[in-house]
Amino acid sequence: MAEKQFLSTVKYVAGTKPAFQLSEIAAYLDEPMTIGQMNAMLQPHLPGLGLVIQETGEDYTISRLKPSLPYILNTAEEKRLKAYLSLDTMPSVLEAAIEQYITRKTGKDWSDPIILERLRRAIVAQKDDYWKPTDKRSLQYTKGYSVLGYLVYHFPVYFMQARHLLAQLARDGLLKQQMTILDLGTGPGVMPLAIEDFWLCLDSARATVCSVERSKEHIEAFEALTRSVAIQDSQVKIESPKEADITSLRDGPLPDSVDLMIFSNVLNELAGLPVAVRADIVMKYAERLAPDGTILIIEPAEEATSTGLRILSLALKKRGLSIYAPCTFIWGTNCTPDRCWSFQTAPSIRPTRIMNSLAGCNEPFRYVNTDIKYSYVMLRKDGRVRTSCHIQKDTRALRLSKIHLNVGKRINVVAAKMSEDLGDAETHLFRLCDGSAEKPVYAVLPAFHIMPSNRELGSSPYGAVLELRNVLVRYNPAHDAYNLLVSRDTHIIPIPVRRKIG
Asked: Are residues 123 and 271 in the same domain?
């Protein structure tokens, strides 16, 4: 109780003064403490409180830590990052560490036929559970072969997709010279290990990664893997996870000024909780976010899970957070996310040695997981957004909320491209959103209609804002959605966007 009151008082005084003496705190305390006792109690919490302390005679001066500057990539780092993202395998040391951990845990070599068969059963059980209705899933991955199955099947893809998200943060200037990162529901440490690996691309940035995990088995795997791949003099300090459930975590030894907060493939496991409750959980942790910090939520691309993320994102927006990416609210309205299935893709990875061994059976496809498809949202406290489009005053564009009134007509629209190609070689299909549509809207481009004037639809990146001129509106009753038919007479023009880095 004394420590809690002391830290609460320090935090309060630090919020009212840029600098103060440690002795000033004594007057607020119910239980007397010496300067030495207060200093010893405060030292472990200084980074989390965003404070620094300096000895001044028999007292100490406490002041606020100056905000870390944004980390802006230089030319060499950009070149290094491009090469890094082209890699299609995990670091060999990490792949070997997973193999060694399975061997140690089972008492048999990972390639033993008995171990491989048990891993197959664990993977099948996890996949069967995942495809149940959301209210019937358990999705625990917390003990025994469920953890080993997770390491074999999910870990490689999640590790590799983290590279693309961290690269986006870096290129957008959302990383800092010195960062505090909090990974909630870390599992066996996918994100901390991915962060340490990614930071090797950066010349001088440094980070401390804290994490929370409820499963003892996952924490054991976390500790084993981080020890196995530890880098001498690493730019990243990975702290041991705090064992706790993120849904009921009490105030404890977690940082108070977090620069990057991550929920990676964990909130979907709380599908039994109402959206409002899950939003409350995120908002509770958001109290620990630095004023210029970012919350990153990642989920699988499966339709129900992906759509659930969009619903949660809007709930968080209504609670005061801004959606930095990937959504662009072109007309300043809130969207209708109930059927918003939007995800990003990246090049597939190569199967690991264990995957190849597991595939040596009658149904090899069940045990190989190499596709990178994910849904994500980045949120901020400061109102900053990644894309702020500038629509010219003379632009004649229809809001997608009015599309039902224009079936059979040719129209112009401004919308963000919110999917990769969902079609096939003959007909290309892309999800569109302007933040106003009540039903799904797709741009449909037959291959024989592709022209220089409309190629931007296929070549523009996920999230790009486009003006589509002269598209024909059709209603698709089979999917209760609207199609915008792109023809040779359609012109697609990228809309200039405003982005502020730093």
From this structure: yes
Domain final residue pick, 328, 360, 380: 380
| Residue 433: closest CA among 323, 279, 315 | 323
- Where does a domain end: 380, 398, 426? 380
CB 179 within 8 A of CB 68: yes
**Amino acid letter, 96:** A
| C-alpha to C-alpha distance for 171 and 308, rounded to whole angstroms | 27
**One domain, residues 222 and 275:** yes
Contact 337, 310 (CB under 8 A): yes
- H or E segment and range at residue 99: helix 92-106
pLDDT at 501 over 60: no
Angle (CA) 294 300 303, round 5°: 120
Are both 89 and 58 inside the same structural domain?
no
Rounded-to-integer distance, Cα 210 and Cα 110, Å: 30
pLDDT per residue over 237-288, tens digit each?
999 999 999 998 765 678 878 999 999 999 998 878 999 999 999 999 998 8
Task: Return the residue matching tokens 């290094």.
Answer: 80
Q: Which residue has the tokens 């662009």?
A: 328
pTM of the prediction?
0.84
Structure tokens at 129: 């559970």
Alpha carbon 12 to its chain centroid, in Å, reads 31
Summarize pLDDT for 195-249 with one digit per residue, the tens: 999 999 999 999 999 999 999 999 999 999 999 998 888 899 999 999 999 998 7
Q: Between the CA atoms of 53, 55, 61 and 67, what dihedral angle is there, to the nearest 10 degrees?
A: -30
Residue 60: strand pairing partners: 55
The answer to whether 374 and 300 have CB atoms below 8 angstroms apart is yes
Query: 20 lies in which domain range?
Result: 2-64
